[in-house]
Structure formats: structure tokens, C-alpha cells
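For reference, the entry.
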Amino acid sequence: MELPGGGEKVFPSDLMIVRKLKTGLVFPVFLSDENSDYIDSVKTVFNENTGNNRETILKALKELELNSSSTKTIRALSLLFFRNSIFEPPVDVDAPALREDVFKIARIPPVNQDEKRNILKPVEEKYGLSMDEIINGLYADKESELVLHQAYSASNIEIARAYNLEQVETIMMRCSTLYITTSSDWSYTITSIKRLGLLFTAQIDGSKLKSIKITGPLEMFESPERYGSRFAMLIHKISQLENWAIEADIKIKDKFEKTVKVYKLKLSDTVSYYLPESNKTDSINYDFVEKAQPLIVNGTVYFPDYVMKIGDKTVYINITGKTYARQDNEIKENLKGKVNWENIFILRQKDKKMKDEIAFYEDIDFPALKLILSEKYSAKKKLNGELDDNSVDSIKKELEKLYPQTEKMFDYVESQGLIPERVLPALGYKLKWRGLDIIVTKND
């Protein structure tokens, strides 16, 4: 099963391997260096069958299963190898077109090689293929006929960690409620939750965030699989953190009693050794914005994604989507007069522009956002309201001399105790970003 937004996959539920305790706890069964013989045996099958088709490999793996002490482990590892190995068609040809041509000519099956050769001769000339290549290419588009070109070649520990993560994700497919009790990066965690469209509530202890409870429409259905893929994707992201801890309610069917029981899964960064190494990239390359911590106002916790300095003001940035427009605008209204809160909408290419909202397509443009917010928060006050006409004229003249030397213009405005991002636009200049550099230009 493929998961959107990253290409991750999970094992089928019948390959989930867990240890259930009478206390109601459940644990995934991990592979490690101690039981890497499973990996070696599957790796051997694939390496020895380079050049053979999938069907041949499946037969060899079936024999391996019969001689193994854990059929599920072999099947899950085999699936992992199939996904990460490179398969190619046995012949580079348009198989459906080739089949059509051959079947049109061979209405009556040939009884010997000579008849077969005579029948296939026009097809050989048309496609530039030998008779054997034509026979091999007839079903070249079928998965079973794909030929192994390169086997999955990662180290045993890397394979074991990939396997272990998929086992955890498969368990999370059956999650109904998830609690995140520890996170070394709450900003990253909350952003991940929101972008997956999961519903969450926060539990606070005074001025401290205690945990996050995550649920979703899943509770309205009998089958957790309808919503479980998002929990699977979330655990994939959380496991990338340096410090993390979760508790999850997992619904597992009892194959003997034919009932569904709820078990408690408890995992933390103590199992990080058994999972893939972190490749989380969430850095920001701008000095005017940073990731935000949870914000508690009047006993209620809010989760901005970023915090930005606009002049002498602190502005909290909430990254959201059209689906959450109503509730996020209610939050903004509730915080009015308490903090500066801005909802920034990320739209897909097919979405229409939103009236009276700050929105970007696909991803946020921080330099552009800073210019928008600088104008909104700093340019509200007219320059003439703070300075007399003589001072304004003097500043204008000096800036004219310095233009287009952006750095010197910024230094001069700041030396006057003023904010460049507000003063320059008020005096007829535009601020544009080129990479990490800001450039001053004149309005047309």
C-alpha cells in the first residue's frame, strides 16, 4: 500500500508481526544484527536470480518460506526486496502491439518450428527482433515477466531498519488514537500533524505543554484502515526526531475469538537504533524567521508554525489550507489584541485565489511574506505622522544619493532610528529578494 506525500509503503496487515501481552500492551518485533540470517537468505535468492523473471524468484522464495521458522518475516523481507530492486522488461518492445500483430497472423497455432518461423517472419521484419525475442516480448508488460536487473544492495542493518519502520507503520495503520508525549521539535511535529489533516487537541499543565492527542474521522467508522495511513505517515515523520515518545491505541483482530481488541503501543526514541537514520530537513535559511514554540494564551494552547520579526513586532505565522480556513480565522479573531497572528494559506495549483487572505501556491515564500507583512504592520503609520516635512525631505535627498546601494541605504535609515522595511516603501522604493539578498529598486 503506497502512502501519498513521500512514497512510503507499509506491509499488508497479514504480515504485521507483534508481541501481545496480557497486560494489554503490544510491541513490534524488530529485526536486528542477531537475526540477520533472514535477510541473508532473502538476499541470496535475489542475487542468485539476477537476470531471471519475477515468477522464477517467487518460486525460489516460496521454497525458502517452507524451510523458514518465520514465514511472515520472509514474506515481508521479500516484499521489501521487490520494492527496492530494479526490474526491467525482458525485451524493449510495445508488448500489446506485438501481441496484436502476432495473434492476427497466427490465427491457427503452428505445429512445428518451421511453421512458427514462417508465421513470425513478417513480425520479425517489422520489429527488428529475433523469434526468441518476439516470444519473450509477447508478455513483456506483465509484472510476472519482468526481469531482475539489480537486486536491493543495502547493508543488512539498513535493510533491517527499513523493515522495522514498515512494521511500525503497519501497526499504526490500525491506530484509533495517538498521544505524543515527548517531542524535541514541537513546531515540526504540529506542522506534520496539520499537513496530514489530522485532528488534535493539546493537554497543558499550567504553562507547559503536556501532550498532544490526535484523532480523526476514523472514530466514525468501524475500520481503522480508512484513516490509518495518515497515522502511518505521521509516525514516519516523528521517528526522525532526536527525542520523541508516543502512546497509541491499536485495534487488532483476534483470529481465534473473531473479535477486535484495543492494545496500547508505547514507543520512544529508545528504539531509534532499530529505525532508519534521520534525514529530516526542516531548516530555515532566513534570519528574520524561526520555528515557533507552542503559544499559551489565557489557558489555551495555540500552535503557530513560525515566528517572524517585523520591525519591533513579533508576528506568529500559522501555515494552513483552505479546508481549515473557518476554524483558523476564528483563532485569529480570538487572538486579536493579544498577539499578532497571521494565517498563511498554501494552495494547490488547481485552487482559486483567496480573497483578503495571504496565500502561496505549493510552498511558502518567506522573503515575499516578509515584504507583505512589513507593509501590513509597519506601513500603517504614515511617515509624516512621525517626522516633520524637513526631516522627510532630508531623508529623501540622502537616499537619492545612496541609491542603488542597498546596504548603505539600509544603514542610513537605521542610523536615523527608523525601520528600512517601512521607510523605504513609504518613500517610493520597492524591496525585492534575490536569493538571500534584498535589493532596493524604485517604483515604476
Notes: The first strand starts at residue 18 and ends at 20. Residues 156-172 form the longest helix (17 residues). The chain has five domains: 13-88+148-161, 95-145, 174-271, 289-377, 389-442. Residues 91 and 137 are 5 Å apart (CA to CA).
